[in-house]
Specification:
The chain contains five helices and no strands. The termini are far apart.
Length: 179
């Protein structure tokens, strides 16, 4: 029960700023001002989408080295990784929805669309990882559990590298003068 309470509390704290964004569509002038603020907030949100998956990967590797089976701590990190990626994606999508695409170069628009697509893919991937972890906890056969664990470990590893690439694209957009 403590784990569920902790996850809900962290989810609430991380998702709270997104609640403020939901009401921003009512006033066009306010939405424009808020979009500028969101553009400033999106980069810090992306750190959750990178830090939690990296921490999850480190934890998974440590568990393998120590021959420790996945537990509630590991499950919590999977949920945090998913929430981190989801928050980064939602805040990025909000910014994307309010960007003047006509003012972007062709290269900037292509990069922006690739960045957005990869955000949605990473969110989906971490949803699959969570699903695999739930399947792991429900399956009784140890050999099947090991296969599922290796699958989601490989998926986490690849998605961490994809997250680094995603960050590179975002940095090029933000600091390369493309947006």
């Amino acid at each position: 029960m403590k784990r569920v309470s902790l996850i809900l509390l962290i989810s609430f704290v991380l998702l709270l700023p997104l609640g403020a964004l939901a009401g921003a569509h009512e006033n066009a002038e306010g939405a424009k001002e808020l979009t500028i603020e969101v553009m400033k907030v999106h980069p810090p949100f992306t750190h959750f989408g990178i830090a939690f998956p990296v921490a999850l990967l480190v934890l998974e590797i440590a568990y393998l080295i120590l021959r420790r089976k996945p537990d509630s701590i590991e499950f919590t990190f999977i949920v945090l990784a998913l929430l981190g990626v989801l928050i980064a994606t939602l805040s990025g999508y909000y910014v994307y929805a309010h960007i003047d695409e006509e003012g972007l170069s062709k290269e900037g628009l292509e990069l922006l669309e690739s960045h957005e697509l990869l955000g949605f893919i990473l969110t989906s991937v971490y949803s699959v990882v969570l699903g695999l972890r739930i399947a792991y906890s429900l399956i009784k056969d140890e050999s099947k559990k090991n296969i599922i664990r290796w699958i989601y470990l490989i998926v986490i590893l690849l998605s961490v590298f994809a997250g680094f690439f995603q960050g590179s694209l975002g940095g090029e957009l933000a600091y390369g003068g493309l947006v």
